[in-house]
Design goal:
alpha/beta; 4-stranded mixed beta sheet; 14 helices; 39% helix; 17% strand; globular; binds 4'-deoxy-4'-aminopyridoxal-5'-phosphate
Length: 434
Amino acid sequence: MSDFLELDRQNVWHPYTQSATAPTPLGIVRASGSWLYDSDGGAYLDLLASWWTNVHGHAHPAITRAIAEQAATLDHVIFADVTHPPAATLAARLAAHLAPPLSRVFFSDNGSTAVEVALKMAFQYAINCGRPRSRILALEGAYHGDTFGAMSAGHSSGFFTTFAPWLFSVDTIPYPATWIGDNPTEKEAASLTALDAYLARHGGECAALIVEPLLQGASGMRTARASFIAEVCERVRRDDILIIFDEVLTGFGRTGTLFAHERVGTSPDLLCLSKGLTAGVLPMGVTVATERIFSAFRGQDISRALLHGHSFTANPICCAAALASLRLFEEEQTLDRIAKLSAIHTEELAILAQHPHVAQPRALGSIAAFKLLCGRGEYGAPIGRRLRDAMLARGFLIRPLGDVVYFLPPACITSEELRSAYRALSVCIDEIRG
Ligand code: PMP
């Protein structure tokens, strides 16, 4: 069975991995609930929900049943000039969960494509309205995916310097990251001043603002106050700038409400969803647009339409998984489970924050994060790797972002499992710095 590790060594190229220095990958052959299992019977608690995707736990019977039934009924069909029950029903269910103006669901393949589509919609919307706008505004440190448009929007995350010459230019204002016990009032005021200056110069040229609401994930689980995001949105709206919320990470309960923008109290014009959309089991993205934006693409001329689509657009099996996941949110009261996890995070972080090498604790929904003070902080930094290895040896899978350590477990994790992860973490921090 473990021959696959040798096959992997010979033929696989892994994502976000320096293969010259990375350890042999963990070979996982089975998953159930919050646990991943290797071929030797080793078990690992999935504390990053398999790259922020898994919602209700691995191999959940309701999800696997929905997938199997759909695969046997209608596996796939072109989605241009064709529709099917899973896609139409999912679009209606998503719209029912969102504020009324967000009513048109455009399907794509993943988080990056959901962002690409939103950017294309924003640019073409301005053109279709007869007032082209060429600028995009983002918040410093934002990450929106790895395709070229998404990399451009997220250029300030620092992940894409190699590709800088090929990215289109995107403007940024500072992001007032905050944490438990911090007072971000001055940082927020400075950011709003920068925003006002930007709007005074370029407001009329800007097609859209793109934001990861409440939480910047990849740049280090950096939280911002909901009131700040709401204020930014209110100011850009005065210049008729569209608001894109990238909820690829924050969607589907991660921050405690079904969508983070509920906490912000602002509904965007374009909403990007993926990861947890299918319960984190199959790849799919959606960009949800308001009826006003959709209407601007209607007309007698094909050039007014959005000429964008992927082979697997609205794959029925992915849609069936997404529908089953939405049902589980009600049947298993997933948001209540997340509220309980959140309370444990807050309690445990308060203890962990006493540690001399732990700083800037933050907790939001099922996510907890902090900064390690005992090492350099770049992506893939040795300190994070050492901590990952120490945790793995005890049966806990984490993947720090540089010196930022986070837990982002599936909602089915038990209180005991989560608390045991905190116990192990504090032992491992002492171990790696000793
Ligand atoms: N936006 C955000 C906020 C993300 O966190 C990610 C992925 N980490 C993406 C977009 C890109 O999603 P994908 O990896 O599915 O392309």
